[in-house]
C-alpha cells in the first residue's frame, strides 16, 4: 500500500502561497496499516515521513536530505515528535472511545496542521485540524484560540481542550512563529527543486479513426499549466473535454484535453491546434491537428474491420496505462476545509479497502 500517495492529493496550484503541512494518522485495530503514520509536505511535496514501525523520521527529496545532513538535530527533533505524537494520539483515541461510548473499531484519529505563507503579501496562516474515523472532528481557531466542533459528538472534547490554556498558547506560538520560520527556510533550500520549470512533450493520440483526438502533455513541472484546443487561433469549448492534471511517478505532471472530431471535415483539420501553456514560461507549445501527426495503435485490416489488432501494447495503450498508474488523482482546487475533509475521507477509503 502506498501511504504517501494520498498526501499529494493536497497539491493546489498557487504562485505565491507556500505551505508546510504535517499529516498524522493513528489507527487502532486496522490491519496492514502502521498504528501511527506521519508525513510532512512543503508546497505539497512530501519531504518527510515516519511511522510506528520504523520509529524514526526520514527525509524525502534530495534537498531535504542535504538540509538534514547539515542539521542532524532537526531530524532528531522530528523523530522525537513522531514518537511523542504516537503516544499522545493513542491516549486521545482512548479518551474518545470512552467519551463517545465507542465499543467497536476501527478507531482512526488524524491531524493535519501546519502553516501557509504568502511570499507576496507576507500573510501567515496556521491551521490545526483533527479528523475522527474519516470525518472532521475539531479545528483550531487561532484568532479566538478555541476549538471549533462541527459535530455534536465533538463538543465535549472541544470544551475539555479549550480549557487547556497552556497547550493553546503553545499552539499559537508554534503556528505564528516557528512553523513559518521553518517553512521559509525549507523554501530557501528547496528553491531549485520547488521553483524549477520543465516543459512537457506533447502528442496527439487517437484510439480508432472514429474516436476523439486526445492532446496529451506529459513531463511538465510545476502543475500550473493550461491546455486547450483552438480553431483558427480562437480557444474553443464545444466538443472539448479537459482532463485533470495528474502526477507522474517521477514527480512531473501530465494532462490531456480531448477534441471530438466527428463533425470536423478532413479539410478543416488544419484549422485546429492544441496549445499548452506552463505558468512562468513564455513560450506556448502548439501542435496542429493533423492526421499524420496522430499516434494510434489502430491498424486498418480489411478482414477484421474495426478490430484493434496487434501492437496493442504500444504507444497509446501504454500511455493509457501510465494514466491509470498515476500515483493519485488530484482534487480540484478547494478551500482548506474541503481539502482536509476529502483528505480524512480518502485515508478512510484506503484503510477500508
Ligand atoms: C454506552 O453504550 C452501551 C452499549 O451500547 C449502552 O448500554 C450505554 O447506555 C451507553 N452509555 C452512554 C452513556 O451512552
Ligand atoms: C462526438 O460528437 C458526435 C456528434 O456531435 C456525437 O454523436 C458523439 O457521441 C461524440 N463522441 C464523443 C466520444 O463524445
Automatic annotation (TrEMBL):
Its transmembrane ranges are: 309-329
GO BP terms, alphabetized? immune response
What the entry lists under Pfam families is as follows: C1-set (PF07654), MHC_I (PF00129)
Q: What residue range is the signal peptide?
A: 1-15
The UniProt entry, under PANTHER family, shows: MHC CLASS I ANTIGEN TRANSCRIPT VARIANT 1-RELATED, MHC CLASS I-RELATED
PROSITE patterns from the xrefs?
IG_LIKE
Quote the InterPro entries the UniProt record gives: Ig-like_dom, Ig-like_dom_sf, Ig-like_fold, Ig_C1-set, MHC_class-I_related, MHC_I-like_Ag-recog, MHC_I-like_Ag-recog_sf, MHC_I/II-like_Ag-recog
For this record, the Gene Ontology CC terms, alphabetical, are: external side of plasma membrane; extracellular space
| Keyword rRNA-binding part of the UniProt annotation | no
- What keywords does the record list, in alphabetical order? Glycoprotein, Membrane, Signal, Transmembrane, Transmembrane helix
Keyword presence, Transmembrane helix: yes
Q: Where is the Ig-like domain?
A: 200-288
What name appears for this protein in its UniProt entry? Major histocompatibility complex class I-related gene protein-like
User: According to its UniProt record, which protein family does this protein belong to?
Assistant: Belongs to the MHC class I family.
Amino acid at each position: 500500500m502506498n501511504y504517501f500517495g494520498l498526501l499529494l492529493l493536497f497539491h493546489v496550484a498557487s504562485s505565491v502561497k507556500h505551505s508546510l503541512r504535517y499529516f498524522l494518522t493513528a489507527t487502532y485495530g486496522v490491519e496492514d496499516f502502521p498504528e501511527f503514520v506521519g508525513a510532512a509536505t512543503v508546497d505539497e511535496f512530501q519531504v518527510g515521513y515516519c511511522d510506528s514501525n520504523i520509529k524514526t523520521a526520514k527525509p524525502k527529496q534530495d534537498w531535504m536530505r542535504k538540509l538534514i545532513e547539515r542539521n542532524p538535530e532537526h531530524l532528531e527533533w522530528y523523530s522525537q515528535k513522531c514518537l511523542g505524537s504516537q503516544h499522545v494520539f493513542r491516549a486521545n483515541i482512548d479518551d474518545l472511545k470512552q467519551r463517545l461510548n465507542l465499543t467497536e473499531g476501527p478507531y482512526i484519529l488524524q491531524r493535519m496542521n501546519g502553516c501557509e505563507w504568502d511570499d507576496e503579501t507576507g500573510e501567515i496562516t496556521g491551521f490545526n485540524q483533527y479528523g475522527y474515523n474519516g470525518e472532521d472532528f475539531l479545528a483550531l481557531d487561532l484568532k479566538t484560540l478555541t476549538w471549533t466542533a462541527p459535530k455534536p459528538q465533538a463538543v465535549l472534547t472541544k470544551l475539555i481542550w479549550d480549557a487547556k490554556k497552556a497547550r493553546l498558547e503553545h499552539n499559537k506560538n508554534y503556528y505564528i512563529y516557528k512553523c513559518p520560520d521553518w517553512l521559509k527556510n525549507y523554501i530557501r533550500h528547496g528553491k531549485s527543486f520547488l521553483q524549477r520549470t520543465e516543459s512537457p512533450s506533447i502528442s496527439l493520440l487517437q484510439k480508432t479513426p472514429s474516436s476523439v483526438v486526445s492532446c496529451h502533455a506529459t513531463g511538465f513541472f510545476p502543475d500550473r499549466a493550461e491546455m486547450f484546443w483552438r480553431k483558427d487561433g480562437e480557444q474553443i469549448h464545444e466538443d472539448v473535454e479537459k482532463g485533470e492534471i495528474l502526477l507522474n511517478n517521477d514527480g512531473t505532471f501530465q494532462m490531456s484535453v480531448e477534441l471530438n472530431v466527428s463533425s470536423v471535415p478532413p479539410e478543416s483539420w488544419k484549422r485546429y491546434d492544441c496549445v499548452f501553456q506552463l505558468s512562468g514560461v513564455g513560450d506556448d507549445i502548439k501542435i496542429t491537428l493533423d492526421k499524420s501527426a496522430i499516434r494510434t495503435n489502430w491498424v486498418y485490416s480489411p478482414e477484421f474491420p474495426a478490430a484493434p489488432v496487434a501492437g496493442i501494447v504500444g504507444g497509446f495503450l501504454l500511455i493509457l496505462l501510465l494514466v491509470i498508474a498515476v500515483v493519485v488523482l488530484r482534487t480540484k482546487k478547494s478551500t482548506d476545509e474541503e481539502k482536509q475533509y476529502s483528505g480524512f475521507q480518502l485515508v478512510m477509503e484506503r484503510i477500508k479497502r
